[in-house]
Design brief:
Radius of gyration: 24 Å
Number of domains: 1
Helix content: 40-55%
Number of helices: 2
Largest sheet: 3 strands, antiparallel
Distance between the termini: 77 Å
Length: 128
Amino acid sequence: MRPKRKAHESGAAAVEFALILPVFVLMIVGMIEFSRLYNVQISLSNAAREGARVMAIYNNTGTASSAAVAAAPGLSPALTSGEISISPGTCAYGQTVTVSITHTVPLITDYFGISIPLHAKGVMLCGG
């Protein structure tokens, strides 16, 4: 048996829903943006590691840069060789080579800004 509604309580659920809806939508959009950025960060870390591995083996900055770009095919906008920094330029036996990537990711919404720059670094021992 349901209790009867009182006249002054009609529409209370609609008002509560209207108050909570914007917060709920903002939380959902935030989770979507975070998960998308996390996925891009993982791709960038993998690309930096692959670029450092190729540089350590072949000692060629062009080949290493191309390998880093090829290791992140799903990025939108795509990773370019201009966003990749390889230091030092030559890889001597026993040294370490560092590949740094800075990639700017546009966000889906403007709630949290227009874009966010993400950074990744891969370090590898030369001559391996």
